[in-house]
């Protein structure tokens, strides 16, 4: 059995499950979506650092997950859900257009990287720097400190 095909199928099933469980806009659903992005970023980081060998299929899966999840993430911050999430700043609802634009940029940058698939661990590292800057900027603006 091809382990890469199995891993890709599991990742896609996880994305589908995450979309279903995240549909209610609760704190737990938002955390689940962020964990999908974080897990994918972690997979890319392992390749960039050399702790995992370069694997084009793993890079594709991670970038696809980030692009798809970032695209739907803002949809889970509907008006009236401000009190459901102790980690999300009220600034999200005050600046929803900016919040959505930041998520769209992350998704777009992941899609661009997917189209120009990083060919080695150094290129994965450069891609991760771009994606990480998107994540960090949004977290700085819209995530409450724990």
Please describe the topology of this protein.
Blueprint: H1 3-21, H2 27-49, H3 56-72, H4 91-94, H5 96-115, H6 121-142
Helix pairs in contact: 1-2, 1-3, 2-3, 2-6, 3-5, 5-6
Assigned CATH architecture: Up-down Bundle
CATH topology: Four Helix Bundle (Hemerythrin (Met), subunit A)
Would you state the CATH class? Mainly Alpha
Counting DSSP H or I runs of 4 or more residues, the number of helices is 6
Following the backbone from N to C, one meets helices and strands in this order, namely: HHHHHH
Largest sheet: none
pLDDT < 50 runs, ≥5 residues: 1-10, 16-22
Radius of gyration over all CA atoms, rounded: 15 Å
**What proportion of the residues form beta strands (DSSP E)?**
under 5%
Gross morphology is elongated
Helical content class: over 70%
GO molecular function, one term: electron transfer activity
InterPro entries: Cyt_c/b562, Cyt_c_II, Cyt_c_prime, Cyt_c_prime_subgr
Keywords: Electron transport, Heme, Iron, Metal-binding, Signal, Transport
Pfam families: Cytochrom_C_2
Describe this structure in words.
- The chain is mainly α and 146 residues long.
- The protein has a single domain (3-75, 84-142), classed as Up-down Bundle (Four Helix Bundle (Hemerythrin (Met), subunit A)).
- It is 72% helix and 0% strand.
- The chain has 6 helices and no strands.
- It has helices spanning 3-21, 27-49, 56-72, 91-94, 96-115, 121-142.
- Helix 2 runs antiparallel to helix 3, helix 3 (56-72) runs antiparallel to helix 5 and helix 5 packs antiparallel against helix 6 (121-142).
- The longest helix has 23 residues, at 27-49.
- The termini are far apart.
- Residues 1-10 and 16-22 have low confidence and may be disordered.
